[in-house]
Design brief:
Length: about 1000
């Protein structure tokens, strides 16, 4: 196939493969896979729309986002299947609609042309009466149904070229379509009336698991109602890049005690100078990093925030808006007074069983800044002297009351058990109790806090800090009878009332859980609210059953000891949490592992598990069914074994907050059924993503299915020695941008750190992969050859603990058992030394199965005319890469030489890099550098570096250059500048130190180069 693209003429100085506009810190990668966004760079000279034999050059063009440049070719789809759509000539009329994703297009700009890949068809007559429409869309799939012209722009009307038997058939638009680079692109192709033919064209397409196209033909009229299809035509677009001023991405807010922490990501395709933060619509502050802690806020007050990116020319549109209410830590009572050693208190054991209660008032909470309704998630007493024995069957109960003290007992009616522990061991100091069922304070009444424990074996002591208040603490205690449910004066008990009300510390829960998240209940109920009321069968968090880890949430009739229920007692219990959905995504999936047998069938289901997604104003009540529509048809039942479920959530959730509710119902009919249990609740942002909990450095994650050649591959990974609390994964096939050839199954993983971790991957590919490549933090690629332990279904490897500490790990498998992942070139330079020789130097990030290298030279930029000027230079085949050098001493004056590097694999595969151009003037004078055709940043060399590195750039005209160096958190560390009065190739030296002269530690650093109005961003890796 003859592909036309922008010619890359690699001129003088450094040639390093890179993404000039890699998004700072975001991990974004361009769509097509020839050039990587990491630590490598390239010098460009754009010479127009001429033929180029390599698709890599086309892909590299996507990485330069500049006004006034030549168009960039974007090719989406490389499938070889054939069909008669999108332009069907076998019928009089055809209609076709398709969606191409923003991640596939990879840039914004003005789309000037469109082409479809014709596979065959001898008829070469124009396809008449063709209309092509484009529009932005947030949708990513189609259902069957009518197409509509709403929102579409007509970009072409007339005859569609059909000039050959095969190849790209292209049409230029009369007016370009302004594509924003953020939304997906929908294309509607309408072919009007034209007499059918038999030697009609067929078009190549790629197959997806989603329905991203719909289409239909008709002999009598234009089809309106279309049928969906998973066959997406291969597409080529030409796009004129434009300057981008995108807003920050994925703004989130974490409320704290009198503080809100904001975090956001760098905008797509651009690097701002700074960011402006707005609170409640009013400008607050400018910062250069990617986070900010707002301490000028009040607890329990709702605030809204958005962030604007600041560019040299203008400000961006606002980011998504987030809402946060700072959570509260409140102390009720102060002073150093304590109860006596034998005085009744929640932890005193001078009697073998004790029960007591106090009232804390609304006015106290209001004075402390608490306005309800709001959830209490923790309470704590300040222990002055811990008892020597654990408190058996210790419980905490709470309820609302109009009483201001405990001049009389607050009876059991309405008391909610918020915590229970079969053996509670109080600790000295503020002994905080995480409530298994957080208490929802209504904001109007006072609160009763009731504690009790069963019979001890021996008596002892126990003191708490307290303050004096009339009727502060009421109690009953006894040495022979359990007092837990005694709420009255008994002459046989030690009962009474005193002024010593215990100090109380309260913690209030954050309002929202941000997506993505995973909850395995290993730390208790956390941010989930249990609504059990006085139901017999209740949701409990414990160790009676679990799918992974040691805990889950399950129905229990004995306080969590067992996953069981009283079949003769009807119950309806719920648990829920509020979920915040980011505005940057459209597709969300709820997944969890469950088990529950249910009684009844279809409309007559009486015992079952159900899940709901409602507005946050819907609060479930114990004993009452929800009237909302469940996310699962019917209900979840008929499974006594653990089951995994994945539920696509509604498409309009972006930027919203919802309440996720799980409900259990049984009707008390006496029929024995297994009650519900749930583990690993998670919401992810795309179907191909997954997330799991890390427990003790170990985790396992089931990867989303990947379709390879029509076959579905189900893979999984287990980890050991992993750092962090969660690990997430996205799986795909040849979807990760890298310089690796023969790339197949790929995985993108995120955790706190992968350094020192061991991965066992059940890839299930059916062959032993000859090589696997991995990259940490978009750094150098490491190639691993197959070991004796690898099989056709499993491979394992350990990441060195000395590797760069990065939270992102990219893994790429070979496409087949014959295809290895080839050499990855880290740098390639050709430099004239005086007039003695040209030094050709190159370095590899990794090598495997490489026979060696030849250096080629020509006096023209045509590879076909180049000849080898070196013998075979044997490869080191090191997984850590190697450095090579060749000196060309056979020089002539007034000549321009072009150099290539040819690498040969033992498999017979070969590759070429270059050309690099070097000009030699009269041997008696100075060498003349070629004047760059454009201004560009050429990356740094060496990269990775130890002590120092050279920051290379090309100037098409005189300019001042300013380089700002940031760490991965966006903090400015150093500024380096240079003034150049002539065009040419230049470099600045960075010595690995900050502005104070302190040596920087190992890690990824981002440098932003400002040349006039142009701004460029690159990454570099410091390794010590």
């Amino acid at each position: 196939m003859n592909k036309k693209c922008l010619i890359l003429s690699f001129v003088a100085a450094t040639f390093i493969i890179a993404n000039l506009f890699a998004a700072v810190g975001s991990g974004e990668r361009p769509v097509d896979g020839a050039l990587q966004d990491a630590d490598y760079s390239i010098s460009y000279s754009w010479t127009g729309d001429a033929a180029l034999g390599s698709a890599e050059a086309c892909d590299a063009a996507q990485n330069l986002i500049r006004e006034g440049s030549d168009p960039v070719e974007v090719i989406i789809g490389s499938g070889t299947g054939t069909q008669e759509f999108p332009l069907h000539r076998h019928y009089n009329y055809s209609s076709h609609e398709a969606i191409y994703l923003a991640s596939e297009i990879g840039m914004n700009g003005n789309i000037s042309s469109l082409a479809y890949d014709k596979a065959s068809g001898s008829n070469a007559s124009p396809i008449e009466a063709t209309s092509i429409y484009m529009k932005h869309t947030t949708a990513s799939i189609f259902d069957n149904g009518d197409y509509s012209l709403d929102g579409y722009t007509l970009v072409y009307s007339g005859a569609f070229p059909n000039t050959g038997r095969s190849g790209w058939m292209e049409v230029d638009f009369s007016e370009p379509f302004a594509y924003n680079g953020v939304d997906n692109l929908s294309i509607l192709v309408i072919k009007g009336n034209q007499i059918p033919i038999t030697d009609n064209p067929v078009w190549r397409y790629s197959t997806f698991t989603e329905y991203r196209a719909r289409q239909k033909v008709n002999n009598y009229s234009q089809p309106i109602e279309l049928s969906r299809s998973s066959c997406l035509p291969n597409l080529r677009l030409k796009i004129y890049p434009v300057a981008v001023y995108n807003p920050p991405k994925n703004l989130s807010a974490i409320p704290g005690n009198q503080s809100v922490i904001l975090n956001w990501e760098v905008p797509n395709l651009s690097v701002p100078d700074s960011y402006k933060i707005f609170r409640d619509g009013v400008f607050l502050i400018s910062v250069t990093g990617f986070s900010y802690q707002d301490d000028a806020v009040s607890n329990d007050t709702q605030y809204s925030y958005y962030v604007v990116a600041v560019y040299p020319e203008t400000d961006s549109e606002p980011s998504n808006t987030v809402i946060a209410t700072p959570n509260v830590i409140v102390f009720l009572g102060s002073g150093i007074q304590t109860t006596a050693a034998n005085e009744a208190s929640p932890v005193n054991t001078s009697y073998k069983s004790s029960h007591g209660q106090s009232v804390y008032t609304k006015s106290e909470l209001n004075t402390a800044g608490i306005i309800g309704p709001i959830y209490i998630t923790q309470i704590g007493f300040k222990v002055a002297l811990a008892p020597t024995s654990n408190l058996p069957n210790f419980i905490v109960r709470m309820k609302h009351t109009s009483a201001t003290n405990v001049s009389s007992w607050q009876n059991a009616t309405g008391l909610q058990t918020v915590y229970s522990n079969p053996s509670y061991a109080p600790q000295t100091g503020w002994d905080m109790i995480i409530l298994s069922s957080p208490f929802l304070w209504n904001g109007h009444n006072n609160i009763v806090v009731d504690t009790a424990f069963g019979l001890l074996g021996n008596t002892g002591e126990g003191k708490v800090y307290c303050h004096s208040i009339d009727n502060g603490y009421r109690y009953t205690r006894n040495n022979t009878n359990n007092q837990t449910n005694v709420f009255l004066y008994n002459v046989n008990n030690n009962t009474g009332i005193n002024r010593h009300r215990p100090h109380l510390k309260l913690v209030f829960r954050p309002l929202l859980i941000p997506v993505p998240f995973v909850e395995g209940f290993e730390s208790g109920a956390a941010d989930w609210i249990l609504v059990n009321g006085n139901q017999v069968n209740k949701w409990q968090v414990g160790e009676a059953d679990h799918y992974t880890g040691t805990k889950s949430i399950y129905i229990s009739d004995d306080g969590g000891t067992n996953n069981s229920y009283d079949v003769n007692q009807a119950s309806i219990s719920h648990f829920f949490s509020n979920i915040s959905f980011p505005s940057s995504e459209e597709d969300f999936y709820l997944r969890f592992t469950w088990k529950a047998n249910g009684e009844g069938v279809e409309a007559n289901i009486s015992d079952y598990l159900q899940v709901y997604l409602t507005e946050t104003t819907i609060t479930p009540l114990a004993g009452t069914e929800l009237s909302a529509t469940g996310l699962v048809d019917g209900a979840l039942l008929s499974s006594g074994a653990w089951q995994n479920i994945s539920i696509p959530l509604p498409a309009d959730l972006a930027g919203s907050s919802k309440r996720l509710i799980f409900s259990w119902k049984n009707n008390g009919s006496g029929v024995v059924q297994a009650p519900a249990a749930i583990d690993n609740i998670r919401i992810v942002q795309a179907q191909q993503q997954e997330i799991a909990i890390v427990i003790g450095g170990e985790s396992g994650i089931e990867l989303p299915p990947v379709t390879i050649g029509g076959e579905t591959i189900n893979s999984s990974i287990t980890f050991t020695d992993l750092t962090g609390s969660t690990v997430s994964c996205q799986a795909g096939y040849a979807s990760v941008e890298s310089p690796l050839g023969n790339a197949g199954l790929d995985l993108v993983l995120s955790a706190d750190s992968f350094a020192g971790a061991t991965l066992t991957i059940n890839h299930n590919l059916g062959f032993i992969p000859p090589t696997i490549a991995y990259s940490l933090g978009a750094g150098a690629w490491n190639i691993i050859s197959a070991s004796d332990t690898w099989t056709a279904f499993q491979a394992n490897f350990t990441i060195s603990a000395s590797k760069q500490d990065s939270g992102e790990l990219i893994i790429v498998f070979s496409k087949s058992e014959e295809g290895t992942l080839p050499v990855t070139l880290a740098s390639f330079t050709a430099v004239l030394h005086g007039h003695s020789y040209v030094s050709v130097d190159w370095a590899t990030a990794s090598e495997t199965g490489v026979m060696g290298y030849y250096v080629l030279r020509s006096d023209s930029a045509d590879l076909a005319e180049a000849e080898a000027i070196s013998g075979l230079i044997t490869a080191a085949n090191s997984a850590e890469g190697a450095i090579y050098n060749f000196r060309d001493k056979k020089l002539c004056s007034n000549s321009t030489y072009y150099y290539w590097l040819n690498n040969l694999d033992f498999s017979g595969a070969e590759g070429y890099n270059g050309p690099l151009a070097v000009h030699i003037d009269d041997l008696g004078g100075d060498a003349q550098g070629l004047v760059p055709a454009i201004t560009a940043v050429l990356g740094n060399y060496p990269n990775p570096f130890n002590c120092a590195t050279h920051l290379h750039y090309a100037l098409a005209k005189a300019a001042e250059v300013k380089v700002q160096i940031y760490n991965s958190r966006g903090q400015l560390l150093r500024t380096i500048s240079g003034q150049h009065d002539l065009p040419g190739y230049y470099k600045l030296i960075f010595d690995g130190k900050d502005s104070s002269g302190r040596e920087l530690s190992s890690g990824v650093y981002i440098y932003r180069t400002q040349i006039g109005k142009d701004s460029f961003a690159n990454r570099m890796l410091l390794l010590k």
